[in-house]
Structures are given as structure tokens and as C-alpha cells.
């Protein structure tokens, strides 16, 4: 009898988790509508295209692509995956506003403006990484470059220092180190994430949305601060 109870409990937990994943983390509300509009108004970046050239990549498209990466059971790791994924699902609704994607997108804008103030860098000319293993941040770097980018090293509990970025040109002629301002993401967000809470947690959702509104209502230059800037 005890075994059946445990199995039933496990099944219910799995079912509830599946419902959350299917329905998305960000239920429709006045707040989510506001954030969605801010996402759509965000200036695009130039990303790698399938033919080796450049294309406009909007934050909305990046979030949709990441959403499919999270929910699809057919997540391929080849480079073409990052070019084709969005096209196949462009009519689906955006239900998850990923803080990692949004922060990484703004980090690309910041690095591009700092390293090449008079023109936009080709994604192949910008090597960008982040101090933490946040999946969303690394996914936007992969989407931007058109090929897989991933964290190397030992992951640590998430904190404001996790959002420290390094950007450089391939010849290392110039290298930037910059970080997200500590006032952007509430400390409560990190505490809840490190305790294992997910997007279904009300407090975590409120903290995340507060951070999203700050990032989306600010320019990239207002979101980050330079740690150092070296050049030959």
C-alpha cells in the first residue's frame, strides 16, 4: 500500500510539473502584457545567418527560439538547429520570458557598442562569455553566433557575480569585462533560485518580472558597468 501511495504521489508531481511546462511560466496578466510589449520594442542585434552573412535578431525571436529549446523533446545540438528552430515555430505563442536570454541579449548590445562604437560587429568577431552556467544566457550566445556556446568550468550557486561577462575580439586586441548592475536583479531572486524554486513560485516570479522590467526599460549602457577595458 505504501509503495502505491509513493508511486501515486510521484505521478501527481510529474503531472503538475508537465502542466507548468506546457502552460508556460508567465501567465497572461497586465504585467505580462506590459513586459511582452517591452520585449517587442527592444532594438534587434545583428546575428549570424545561415548563409554566413548577418540578419536582424529580435529579442522576441530569441525568446521564442529558447522556449522551443526548453520544451522540445527533439533538441538537436548541431549548428543548423540555431538557424532553423524559430522558423518552424513562429506561430506559437511566447509564454516564457527568460531572464537569462534577456540579460544575455542586452550584454551583446553592450559589448558591441563598447568594442565597435561606429559599426556593428560580425558575431564571428565577438567572443562573449558569462561567469555562470545560466542556460538562457548561453542559449542567446549560441543563437547569436549560429553555433553552440556553452559554459566551461565549475558551476556555483547563482548570485549577482554570475552575471559578469567577458567580451573580446578574436585577435584579443581588445577585451572587456563588465557586469550587470546589482540593482537590476533583486537578491530574493537568487535566494529562491538557489533553494530550488522554479517559475511556479509566486515570489520568484515577482522578483523575475521586476528585474525584466528594469532591464527592458533601460538601455544596455544603463544595465551594465565596466570592470575593466584592455586594448593593445
User: What low-confidence regions span 5 or more consecutive residues with pLDDT below 50?
Assistant: 4-24
Number of helices: 9
Lateral strand order in the biggest sheet: 3-4-5-6
Strands, count: 6
Radius of gyration, taken over Cα atoms and rounded to an integer in Å: 19 Å
Instruction: Give the distance, in angstroms, between the N- and C-terminal Cα atoms.
Output: 71 Å
Q: What pattern of helices and strands is seen along the backbone?
A: HHEEHHHEHEEHHHE
DSSP helix fraction: 40-55%
What global shape is seen?
A: globular
Mean pLDDT: 83
**Count of individual domains:** 1
Q: Note the beta-strand portion.
A: 5-15%
User: How would a crystallographer describe the biggest sheet?
Assistant: 4 strands, antiparallel
Class computed from helices, strands and strand pairing: alpha+beta
Organism: Sedimentisphaera salicampi
Protein name: Lipoprotein
Account of the 3D structure:
Helix 2 packs parallel to helix 8 (about 200-215) and helix 3 crosses helix 6 (about 135-145). The chain has nine helices and six strands. About 45% of the residues lie in helices and about 15% in strands. It has helices at about 1-25, 30-40, 60-70, 80-90, 100-115, 135-145, 185-195, 200-215, 220-225, and strands spanning about 45-50, 55, 125-130, 165-170, 175-180, 225-230. The longest helix has 22 residues, at about 1-25. By secondary structure, it is of the alpha+beta class. A four-stranded antiparallel β-sheet has the order 3-4-5-6. It has a two-stranded antiparallel ribbon with strand order 1-2. It has one domain (about 25-230). This is Lipoprotein.
